[in-house]
């Protein structure tokens, strides 16, 4: 389709690079909810807020019996353990962001949207718009800043109510529907991309 592609996730950078390989070539990876940006792919990643991330790790490692997950910057923990970790984080310049069944701790101002904007600048596309599709509340700011936004069918209700297009398909099928339907129509001006789907354009709920 002639588009640049980014894989954007709350996952740790090490996990995201491993998961990205089977898909082939990406133009950029935005990991840890915007805190680690590799753009273009193959370049040294930019790590944002590493000092705050280190301070968070030092505090959370003192909680015996709890098992937070540590990335280069992001730290996540199960929602059920919220009260334990909020005490430890008091006074630090961080945001607590929900991501399905876990909570992520990130430096203030670091989001998927800020990570994508940084990646676009590093790709020489600083003023360009972007399309995005998501499923969880940590995608809301990213979707709000998109020129075209989508939500898979299994997305949280707040995400579905925000998106321009809500898919009938869940998970990967929803992504395929979004790419071959509204995104292809936006960039190509025609019917769905025939190599991807045989269904009619707008077989989801369509634009709001």
Structure description:
This protein is of the alpha/beta class. It is 32% helix and 20% strand. It is built from seven helices and twelve strands. Strand 7 (94-99) and strand 8 (102-107) form a beta hairpin. The chain is globular, with a radius of gyration of 18 Å.
Shape: globular
CATH superfamily assignment of the domain at 129-208? HAD superfamily/HAD-like
Structural class determined from secondary elements: alpha/beta
Question: Mean pLDDT score, rounded?
Answer: 88
User: Looking at CATH, which topology of the domain at 129-208 would you report?
Assistant: Rossmann fold
Spatial strand arrangement across the major sheet: 1-2-3-4
Note the gap between the termini.
24 Å
Task: Outline the low-pLDDT stretches.
Answer: 197-208
Beta strand %: 15-25%
SSE string, helices as H and strands as E: EHEEEHEEHEEHEHEHEHE
Rounded Rg: 18 Å
Helix content: 25-40%
Q: Indicate the CATH architecture of the domain at 129-208.
A: 3-Layer(aba) Sandwich
Number of E strands: 12
